[in-house]
Amino acid sequence: MVHTEGVDVTFEPLRATDLPVIATWLARPHVRRWWRQPSDPASVEEDFGPLLDGSDPTEGFIVRLDGRPIGYVQRGLIEDDPETRHAIRASLGDGGGIGIDYFIGEPDLVGRGIGRAMISRFVDGCFARYPSECRIVVGLQQVNVASWKALEAAGFRRAWAGELESTDPSDEGPSFIYLLARVAPS
């Protein structure tokens, strides 16, 4: 269990039995606004199945708060995803690092500091999982104020603003890219 300023969160690897709750969350308006992908069971299976069978190197996790499933977070090397690598290179000039994405699926928990705590604790695990990577990269829509405020509170800095070169519907519109550099051991 992780403790961050009064918020206890855990991350459990995504399992096939989690897909129905993912579908429920993706259908909720506060998630659908940013994660613009179908939420029907067949589409969720198609989208998340490759994470489960290992054909997609992205790692997905269910976020739990006091044992309650509350959200989803994923990570992966940007170099492993050609479209993300292209979008990041076109924006920042290089495409390295660890990419993360996340959402809180439970509407009663949005705006309570849980996103900041979740991100803060998750990045520690990202750097441990990929010890040779020196940064974490997050792309998000500029109008997603709650998300970029959570990133800033977790120590990320805004590195870029503009239109991402991406075919992902979730990337449509003006975007920001946020970075968090690995802190060198003292």
Describe, in plain words, how this protein is organized in 3D.
Helix 1 (about 20-25) packs across helix 3 and helix 5 (about 115-130) crosses helix 6. The two termini are about 25 Å apart. The chain is of the alpha+beta class. Strand 5 (about 100-105), helix 5 and strand 6 form a beta-alpha-beta unit. Strands 1-2-3-4-5-6-8-7 form an eight-stranded mixed beta sheet, sandwiched between helices. The protein contains six helices and eight strands.
Question: Brief description of this entry?
Answer:
The protein is α+β, with helices and mostly antiparallel strands and 186 residues long. It has helices at residues 19-27, 29-32, 41-53, 82-92, 114-129, 145-153; strands at residues 2-4, 7-13, 59-65, 68-77, 98-104, 135-141, 157-163, 174-181. Helix 5 crosses helix 6.
Highlighted features:
single chain; 186 residues; alpha+beta; eight-stranded mixed β-sheet; 6 helices; 33% helix; globular
Radius of gyration from the alpha-carbon trace, in angstroms: 16 Å
Q: Note the quaternary state here.
A: single chain
Strand fraction equals 25-35%
Give the termini distance in whole angstroms: 26 Å
Number of separate helices: 6
**Total DSSP E strands:** 8
Question: Helices and strands: which structural class?
Answer: alpha+beta
Characterize the biggest β-sheet: 8 strands, mixed
Arithmetic mean pLDDT: 92
Q: Spans of 5+ residues with little confidence (pLDDT < 50)?
A: none
Instruction: Spell the H/E element sequence.
Output: EEHHHEEHEHEHEE
The global form is globular
Provide the spatial order of strands within the biggest beta sheet. 1-2-3-4-5-6-8-7
User: Helical amount among residues, as a percent range?
Assistant: 25-40%
